[in-house]
Design a protein that fits this description.
Blueprint lengths: L12 H8 L9 E2 H8 L3 H7 L11 E2 L5 E3 L1 H15 L4 H29 L1
Antiparallel strand pairs: 1-3, 2-3
Helix pairs in contact: 4-5
């Protein structure tokens, strides 16, 4: 039996864009309330992650009404920050560690893709 939606071929661009957001880890889908509930942190903790100056870990987007909206990627960073803080790492130091870890992972990904291209 065909599981394809009957209108799959005629979906509008708006509908396709909305569906693509489910897979976009950078789409700001989560409200402050949802984020704090998922991470089991306070709103103040999330606000602090965006207010640390040079060590700012996340900067949520704002809804039309001005409410903070977080992406899955930002929530993963916040969860890692919480782990480090729970282990006794000061918040600013935790943010710097996560930023450096993220930069290292990106550099390794780039180097790996270049190695694959050079070896091909």
């Amino acid at each position: 039996m065909d599981q394809t939606h009957p209108n799959a071929g005629t979906a509008t661009l708006e509908h396709r864009g909305a569906c693509d957001r489910f897979d976009d880890e950078n789409y700001p889908a989560y409200s402050m309330g949802a984020a704090t509930e998922m991470l089991q942190v306070t709103p103040a903790f999330l606000r602090a992650l965006g207010a640390l100056g040079a060590a700012r870990l996340i900067e949520p987007q704002r809804s039309r009404g001005g409410h903070r909206r977080y992406s899955r990627y930002q929530l993963r960073l916040a969860a890692r920050a919480r782990e480090l803080v729970d282990q006794g790492t000061p918040l600013e130091a935790a943010c710097r560690i996560i930023i450096l870890e993220d930069q290292l992972a990106e550099a390794q990904r780039i180097n790996s893709s270049r190695s694959h291209l050079a070896g091909a």
